[in-house]
């Protein structure tokens, strides 16, 4: 099954995607991760992307659609794709629909993770990830282990904070979400694909709501 995880930055899309990869053998396609890889590549495109991302703006549709096209055309779907952070505009949503149908596939479900802004700011400004496996930590709820051994991969790791996880960039990212991405909620509702869940519930509850949304 192919699904989209929709929600503002910090809603927990990445964390849920990682769980679905483990439990359902799905393939996570995160445009944010792809763009972070691109920016370390040293190419002209990487430099442009870095500047746009750090300010909290959206990268052009052309670039992200190109990245997704490449993955879909060369990739292995396993238990299906999880689109994480893509699409973020109506043009991207249309392009995804066309790409999937070109490949004889379809979109099964869009799960909107609802979280209020105050919680997002608190989550994002406190988050860091394991440089080895990407496990997400939070200064308040799940601090980095004192010995720097990641609880998920068991390796001694560097724990990284994202360059765009700061209050200024977050403001722009939230605005971009409400202006450019939230119209997708209506778009997928009208297509009968949307399920909304409470992204602020406990981890176990969010996981259960996600499972219920996918198995409905
Ligand atoms: P994320 O990791 O999903 O929070 O994305 C981090 C940043 O990458 C965003 O703030 C955007 O600058 C850029 N980005 C990620 N996905 C997209 C997308 N689908 N369209 C445009 N920009 C994106």
Would you write up a description of this structure?
The chain is of the alpha/beta class and 216 residues long. Helix content is 49%, strand content 15%. A hairpin with a 5-residue loop joins strand 5 and strand 6. The two termini are 12 Å apart. The site of adenosine monophosphate has 18 residues, from helix 2 and helix 3. Adenosine monophosphate (AMP) binds next to helix 2 and helix 3.
Show the helix and strand layout.
Elements: E1 3-6, H1 13-24, E2 27-30, H2 31-39, H3 44-55, H4 61-74, E3 81-84, H5 90-102, E4 109-114, H6 117-125, E5 127-130, E6 136-138, E7 159-160, H7 167-181, H8 183-190, E8 194-198, H9 203-215
Parallel strand pairs: 1-3, 1-4, 2-3, 4-8
Antiparallel strand pairs: 5-6, 5-7
Bound molecules: adenosine monophosphate.
Q: What's the Cα radius of gyration?
A: 17 Å
User: Which ranges are low-confidence, i.e. pLDDT below 50, for 5 or more consecutive residues?
Assistant: none
**Secondary-structure element sequence?**
EHEHHHEHEHEEEHHEH
What proportion strand? 5-15%
Largest sheet: 5 strands, parallel
CA(first)-CA(last) distance:
12 Å
Query: Based on CA inertia axes, which overall geometry fits?
Result: globular
Kindly name the structural category.
alpha/beta
On the 0 to 100 scale, the average pLDDT is 93
The largest beta-sheet arranges its strands as 2-3-1-4-8
Helix content: 40-55%
How many distinct beta strands? 8
Q: Number of DSSP helices?
A: 9
Bound molecules: adenosine monophosphate
């Amino acid at each position: 099954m192919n699904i989209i995880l929709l929600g503002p930055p910090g809603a927990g899309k990445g964390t849920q995607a990682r769980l679905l990869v483990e439990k359902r053998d799905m393939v996570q396609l995160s445009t944010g991760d792809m763009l972070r890889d691109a920016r370390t590549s040293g190419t002209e495109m990487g430099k442009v992307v870095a500047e746009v991302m750090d300010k909290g703006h959206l990268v052009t549709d052309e670039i992200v659609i190109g990245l997704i096209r490449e993955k879909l055309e060369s990739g292995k779907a396993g238990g299906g794709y999880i689109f994480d952070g893509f699409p973020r505009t109506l043009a991207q949503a249309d392009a995804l629909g066309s790409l999937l149908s070109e490949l004889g596939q379809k979109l099964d479900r869009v799960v909107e993770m609802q979280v209020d802004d105050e919680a997002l700011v608190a989550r994002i400004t406190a988050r860091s990830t394991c440089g080895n496996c990407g496990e997400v930590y939070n200064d308040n709820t799940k601090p980095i282990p004192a010995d720097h051994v990641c609880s998920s991969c068991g390796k001694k790791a560097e724990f990284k904070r994202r360059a765009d996880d700061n209050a200024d960039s977050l403001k722009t990212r939230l605005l971009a979400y409400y202006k450019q991405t939230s119209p997708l909620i209506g778009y997928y509702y009208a297509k009968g694909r949307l399920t909304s869940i409470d992204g602020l519930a406990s981890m176990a509850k969010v996981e259960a709501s996600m499972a219920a949304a996918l198995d409905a």
